[in-house]
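Preliminary data (for renewal application), adenosine-5'-triphosphate complex.
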Amino acid sequence: LTEPFREALAIIETIEEAGHQAFFVGGCVRDFLLKRPIGDVDITTSAKPFEVQAIFDEVIPVGIQHGTVIVRHRGISYEVTTFRVEGEYSDQRHPDSVQFIDKIDEDLARRDFTINALAMNKHGYIIDLFHGREDIEKALIRAVGNGHDRFQEDPLRILRAIRFSSQLGFQIEENTLKAIMATRQSITGLAVERITVELQKLFAGKDVKTALSYMVELRIDQELPVLKDYHLIAKLVPIIQPLHTLAEVLCLIHQMEPELDIRIIGKEWKCSNKILREAFQLNQAVDYYKANGLDNWLVYQLLPDYYNAFYRITEIMFPTKIDKDELYRLKKQLNLTSKKDLNINGNDIIKLFPAVPKGPWIQDKLVKLERLVVLGELQNNNMILKDWLKWNPPEQK
Ligand code: ATP
Ligand code: MG
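Predicted structure:
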């Protein structure tokens, strides 16, 4: 066993010592076989949730009704889920009911794709009832069982198929494609939050280009909020590259389709305010870049946390690449680090023009001065800044 599994081994052993079965399951086994970095190690068990709770000291009952308990072990959280089968998804959000079972077989059968329907015991032996390993070798995403029924049951699986094609660079198997074609309209009933999570992962995947081609080919975009009224995805296919955050996606969409307001996209996709703020910041920088190119003011205004995001968007939008090091070089050479360091303040300005009523013009002047100093057009010196103001007094009505 390799590292993240070795760390989690104690959980499997403890459950087994209490007389139950337990396996590593799902994405972690898939990624282990693919030699990809392993995200969360999930565990599936015959122990019922109340039994799992009784076995461990540090537990968080996150989804008892669905059979999931979080077990904390050496600072890491593990989802431990009881073997189960699911009832109908009548609200297309959660199964109406789940039923706990004693054997792993049906638990694996309820999973979405063969590559995700893999379990591994503590010795590294893999249970593979649906030829998941073969599909991993063939780089194929194939629904477990009857695709048509499985997608109808939970249409999120359609988006998951495309998302995995982006993350893993896999093709979607022929019959699975047909099943998606036949059921795609059921996506409309999904909770938007679930859709957004998948879109974010899809855009971040290394093979996002393939994934977007699938979206166009299968006309999935025509079932999704915001995208359904545009042919944006088709336009993105030839130029797209991985985008790490949803804010980048929002910004790029707005740049490609200016009538789509960032606020509107954010609302339709139920994005957090944090993502919206980041998208606005990025968008401002991209607009400025379009008008002025790369200069000190751009670098000064954009938070360094967003440099990479800005770089990724401009790389997609413009034929000539920005030199990423240039961003940091300019940043280092700035003669002002924040507006607090500007050698003039609002009071100075008010004193210079005692006859002019206070108003937003003061702030405007400060920003103008800040920009001139940052661009190196004025020295950051109180006398010089005041002189500039004398030559550029506020307009009087
Ligand atoms: P990652 O965590 O890297 O995004 P994952 O495969 O671990 O990928 P999760 O969403 O964490 O995906 O789900 C864990 C496992 O649960 C999956 O591997 C799959 O077996 C199962 N699963 C998740 N969502 C569904 C679903 N909508 N329908 C059927 N099975 C699912
Ligand atoms: Mg996972």
